[in-house]
Write a structure and sequence with these properties.
There is one protein chain. By secondary structure, the protein is α/β, with parallel strands linked by helices. 47% of the residues lie in helices and 14% in strands. The chain is built from 19 helices and 14 strands. Strands 3-2-1-4-5-6-7 form a 7-stranded parallel beta sheet, sandwiched between helices. The chain has a 7-stranded parallel beta sheet with strand order 10-11-9-8-12-13-14, with helices on both faces. β12, α15 and β13 form a beta-alpha-beta unit. The longest helix is centred in the C-terminal third of the chain and has 19 residues. The chain is globular, with a radius of gyration of 22 Å.
């Protein structure tokens, strides 16, 4: 172990008390964070948990909700490529864990991602001894990678992406990150640009397979639910999708400032915050501004009220319904310097999006969507509200954009099957070598 990894490991060990305090605070808003906390430190009860699958587990790590939904597409194809596969699923957030529990079949197992201290990851690897490990998108943790390398567990990075900011950060500490990226068994990138950045860090990029999220098939029941919500409104519906802290205030400034009050009032607004722990705060903010707000959690199976200015999407797992209800949307995370959110699910539901200036986490998908007319770029929230409300009232232009969004989503599918086949080949090779 080099000195950089030793220093990193010391910091990870020292940070454990802070992590425990953070989990206790998060659990007050999201009780899921209080579940099975010892697992985060590589402590499992009962002690033989997962031992019957040693050497067989196909371990998939998806840190949060978005990665878990992408992992679901891959896991479906893995079960086809590897009949009888036993899944070991790890997550890092409460919403990711809740979503991941829906993917389990008899014989599968779900535990928390181990904190990246040497002892925790070594206990994790020793406890389960996976046949292969699959990290989703960006989840490259130094001690975890090195522990798998030492235990001869092939660890791959699937649906891999790396933005310029993260590349620069890794290059500032080359003695730590270059050996870690080189220690990966294989990497399959989303785009050629991602592949080039990953190769610059020494990652063994084998292919550019595209983005798994293009393989999403919107749930038809949720689509029907969204259509029913749309029917409840006589106005066009504009969604602020997966909004992040600061963005609701930006939107509210346009309303309260009355720059677009007349036009904006001709639309039904649907605001869906990204993180559940912010639902109450966003609701309070909107009501304090004098807006009439109705929360999704109050609708039950009935339609939303038509006599309010804002519908607040305070539920988890219903984004396809929200997108199906909307005529057009503003993309959360792109109006603050946060890198944007995934616009592919919106496109698959036929909902074109207006993007702010910050989409570095999904640069290629955002650029391509804009080029084909499935999305539109603006400089700030003021322009975003103006453009979204104008398009919402332009029936012909909106039809073209919705058709472009559907075509954009459909034309990039196939990454899940290709990635599953590549992983299956690694598992089969490992089995033949034993």
């Amino acid at each position: 172990m080099n000195w950089s990894l030793a220093a990193y490991s010391a910091l990870a060990w020292a940070a454990q008390p802070m992590l425990k305090r953070k989990l206790r605070r998060r659990a007050q808003a999201e009780p899921g964070y209080a579940q099975a906390v010892p697992e985060r430190f590589g402590c499992y009860t009962p002690k033989d948990l997962g031992c019957d699958g040693k050497g067989q587990w196909v371990w998939v790590h998806a840190v949060s909700l978005g990665e878990t939904r992408a992992a679901a597409l891959l896991i479906k194809e893995l079960r086809i490529a590897l009949p009888g596969m036993r899944l070991l699923l790890t997550n890092g957030t409460a919403t990711g864990r809740a979503e991941g529990s829906k993917l389990l079949q008899p014989g599968d197992l779900q535990v928390w991602q181990p904190w990246d201290s040497r002892k925790a990851v070594r206990r994790f690897v020793r406890q389960f001894q996976p046949a292969v490990g699959v990290l989703m998108e960006t989840e490259v943790w130094p001690n975890l990678v090195m522990a798998c390398r030492q235990a001869k567990v092939p660890l791959v990075l699937a649906n891999a992406r790396l933005n310029t900011k993260s590349q620069t950060g890794a290059q500032r500490w080359p003695s730590l990150f270059l050996p870690v990226y080189r220690a990966l068994h294989a990497v399959w990138a989303q785009t050629e640009e991602d592949a080039q950045r990953l190769r610059s860090l020494g990652a063994p990029v084998q292919a550019v397979l595209g983005n798994l999220k293009f393989d999403v098939q919107p749930d038809s029941a949720l689509g029907a639910q969204g259509a029913a919500w749309r029917a409840a409104s006589s106005k066009p519906i504009v969604i602020v999708a997966s909004s992040r802290e600061g963005e609701e205030a930006q939107w509210l400034a346009q309303w309260v400032g009355r720059k677009f009050h007349g036009v904006a009032g001709q639309c039904q607004w649907l605001i869906v915050p990204r993180h559940p722990q912010r639902f109450d705060a966003v609701h309070a903010m909107l009501e304090q501004a004098g807006l009439r707000v109705s929360r999704r959690s109050q609708w039950g199976d009935g339609p939303p009220p038509a006599d309010v200015e804002v519908w607040l999407g305070d539920s988890v797992g219903e984004m396809p319904a929200y997108y199906a209800a909307a005529d057009i949307g503003l993309l959360g995370g792109s109006f603050e310097p946060l890198g944007g959110q995934n616009l592919i699910e919106a496109a698959a539901c036929g909902c074109p999006m207006v993007l702010g200036p910050h989409t570095f986490n999904f640069a290629q998908a955002s650029q391509t969507a804009c080029e084909v007319g499935a999305a539109f770029r603006v400089l700030d929230m003021e322009q975003g509200v103006q453009l979204a409300t104008a398009l919402a009232r332009d029936a012909e232009g909106l039809t073209r954009a919705r058709q472009a969004a559907l075509a954009f989503a459909q034309s990039h599918r196939g990454a899940a099957q290709a990635t599953a086949k590549a992983i299956a080949a690694i598992v089969q090779q490992a089995q033949s070598d034993r």
